[in-house]
Design a protein that fits this description.
Glutaredoxin; Glutathione S-transferase Yfyf (Class Pi), Chain A, domain 2; homodimer; 4-stranded mixed sheet; about 55% helix; alpha+beta
Chain lengths: ~240, ~240
């Protein structure tokens, strides 16, 4: 029993049918969305459980006692948290279908490097543009644009970060393209400019046009309303 | 040529002999230290280049234009940054010797989960204990202890996080055990208490006793002096 070794995190193995897959998500969560894209890419059948936030279910708390957050993938009764960790797990477990990470070790490392760069640099500065005001917002806007331009360099000569088809970086970062357009509408700043970042702008459109990506995108209007609410809360709590 | 695809980061391939390995590090850098442990574990021959910080060398800036920071591994002329990404690359490239990550996908995912937990939770709160004063320091101390206790749960029934031998989590987190004792001496707080965290305390000692780990540890007194200087700078810049 694998569970035994890490029982601190995953104390309770859930009784499930062999190979059964459940995903605990939330319709407005980018991290849950990217796990869904990975599952769809692999053609994995799964049960999707939408959490009623902020009222977290006992099942979520049981499956992720360390962070108490979603998404959580439960496979064969064994729960797993952290979306990028889950995506690598999906790639290794259903390894015969549509590879998510490249096969070559150096290319794999570069994919991990860029996914981490987006997570550590592009996301926080974009959130800053969304949640700050005045000079702080201007500073974040400048930094976010610089980071996005750096990210764009990895697209040179490629349609997707994964090459001709979507891969790890696309799945990890793709939601940001959808969110950025919503952030831009809410705050009235053109963050990802087509003139200065033509490759990244085209990639956003190409990625969102991929059938399996498009079919799981949350409705734009609903997401806009949700994020307007988030912005009001963030500004209220910082003033 | 792999370099082509990501030339934004790695514009200049360095001319090197086939399979030549260089590591750009700094004697007091935990991130460089863990890459060295991984190379030693695999028995990889490498040239170690110690940077003269804060005067970064042109070679470092050429190899890591995105972050301009060390460590950087250069293998066959191809540079790679981000220590945990480098360690996975080392494991995949020299795959026949001493596996660093487990073979089973779920165990691999759990190793990545815990390495990330330590990085995201244990490290920042420990740095807080080291760099803050008064109430802020007390808050960080409480949080750091809670995070370390959570990390300890992954050691239940195991000598090392990797089992009977050291693995990914040990290599990723091991430096923290060495640094924590130095932090404790500098700030006069017993952070990792033997009574409340017996497994983690024993692990620190066991890990630091592993021959290949011990032989690359920076001298304690020199590291103490370096970190005393860091603390003074951090406190000065926050007041």
């Amino acid at each position: 029993m694998l569970m035994h070794s890490y029982e601190g995190v995953h104390q309770q193995e859930t009784k499930m049918a062999k190979n059964e897959v459940k995903l605990i998500g939330y319709w407005g969560s980018p991290a849950a969305l990217r796990v869904e894209w990975a599952l769809k890419l692999k053609g994995v059948e799964y049960e999707y459980i939408d959490e009623d936030l902020p009222n977290k279910s006992p099942f979520l708390l049981q499956c992720n006692p360390v962070y108490k957050k979603l998404p959580v993938l439960v496979h064969d009764g064994k729960p797993l948290a952290e979306s990028l960790v889950i995506i690598e797990y999906i790639d290794e477990t259903w390894s015969s279908e549509n590879p998510i990470l490249p096969q070559d070790p150096y290319e794999r490392a570069m994919a991990r490097f860029w996914a981490k760069f987006a997570e550590d640099k592009c996301v926080p500065t974009t959130v800053g543009v969304f949640s700050k005001l005045g000079e702080e917002q201007e500073k974040c806007t400048k930094e976010a644009r610089e980071n996005l331009k750096t990210l764009e360099t990895a697209l040179k000569g490629r349609k997707f970060f994964g090459g001709e088809t979507i891969g790890f970086v696309d799945i990890a970062v793709g939601w940001l393209g959808y969110w950025i357009r919503i952030v831009e509408e809410i705050v009235g700043i053109n963050l990802l400019e087509e003139e200065t970042m033509p490759l990244l702008s085209a990639w956003v459109q190409d990625f969102l046009d991929v059938a399996l990506v498009k079919e799981r995108l949350p409705p734009r209007d609903k997401l806009l309303q949700l994020n307007k609410g988030f912005r009001e809360q963030m500004i209220a709590s910082s003033t």
